[in-house]
């Protein structure tokens, strides 16, 4: 959901390459437009920006040529204002004294825009990020210095956002965090500020995390944190991040998505190892046990993991957890929460606005907040009473893959621990993931070829595989742009079956214990001429009934269900490539959705 980056250097130097590199690492957050601004030692601003992906815009604007002592880059995921030159960021104030860029949403920007125009300011676009610049301009015009102006502007700007801003005749950058991510990197003779760590870590590993309600004043040698409300300076020690950036490179794979799919065996092994030793697991489990009512809450892929988690807890531990989509949680359940309830919020990024809304709606009740997240240091991590990390490393590709597998594994481990019966041989799991990917890569490509001829289809699952079918369907929609509906297999006959005609594709995701019942569902489609495809453990009857079977290695019912997502990820990837799409950065989407 947009990415911002800023740098302040001691000496004037080429900054275009550095800004472009940071922008590439931020590209997963938004790719509707890119813009860079540099300010030279005399304060002259060079601003280049346009709609389009980085390479297209770079070919027109040659960012590499840009020099200066300060620089700002922004990647936009459009919410307010169509992707266009004027709406691309960074933005200038009326007379080109200020330049700034934001991430997040300024929800009152339409009213602000009217007010700015009435006050005689020049507002060039309809993007809410421009409001940040004019809100500061308003107080600069009234004679306040930059720190005071930024603090005053905070009272005018409503929403969840972060922004970075520079004034021509100063050697500083200023940044604000109010609901969206912001981190500072301490370099050698230069300092950086950004929406996230991957854009900064190749430059420095000394990081200061900014908290909501704080502003940062950066020059080349010092970084000062201040509270927005009273202007007081905040002391915070930098942290040293030793996680290498190799993890954020493609390592020879054509796309991050394929790399991340193939990292799943290792990521799964790392998580199982961590959960085996972590002192955080028991308090998390105790809170679940103590919960009078337990809710699993997430969005998109993370919600699908919640569905499977609830089925696992029901099946293995007899715990009736309720899976809920995060925006619905606030609307339908949060007001009935009590201090005895437990709310498990599941989010790869830990920054998804819908999830944080559910968190904020839960807080007043006193219910225990449990977080499951991948991004350490995220808002969800700090706001949770207890949290467990997914231990996946960076997931750059917009389609979630390894974080989904680890979310399900985490639920599975917890449910089995709660049951008191150790039935799964966890040491086999990484090998099974690798084996499944190895033996189904070719068949998945073949299935992608078959499905590629269709613009609509169904993925059906049952019990544990409902969440897998929904996840497979989401992945296919997300990166192939074909319509694929995920549904409970037993529900198909209650209406959607009417879609079936000659050759109409229906994919069934089948876990071993459900095979005998699912054969009926497959038959219902087959006898109407539909093209039936089964993804699941080998089963003689299914093999005879379906047109095509993608058979996954023998495993327990629970693990087999999880393994079925792997070929579905590969099918989506292959179909996206066949259609000439970029699976890492699908159109209209962003990795981290920090808006309502
Ligand atoms: O960071 P989160 O897990 O909270 O993100 C939730 C969804 O936006 C996310 O899972 C989305 O559905 C994925 N891009 C799907 O691949």
Ends: how far apart?
A: 11 Å
Number of domains: 3
- β-strand percent reads 15-25%
The coarse overall form would be globular
Task: Say what the CATH topology of the largest domain is.
Answer: Glutamine Phosphoribosylpyrophosphate, subunit 1, domain 1
CATH class of the largest domain: Alpha Beta
Q: Which ligands accompany this protein? A: 5-amino-5-deoxy-1-O-phosphono-D-mannitol
Flag low-confidence runs. Answer: none
Key words describing this protein structure:
3 domains, alpha/beta, binds 5-amino-5-deoxy-1-O-phosphono-D-mannitol, Rossmann fold, 596 residues, Glutamine Phosphoribosylpyrophosphate, subunit 1, domain 1, 24% strand
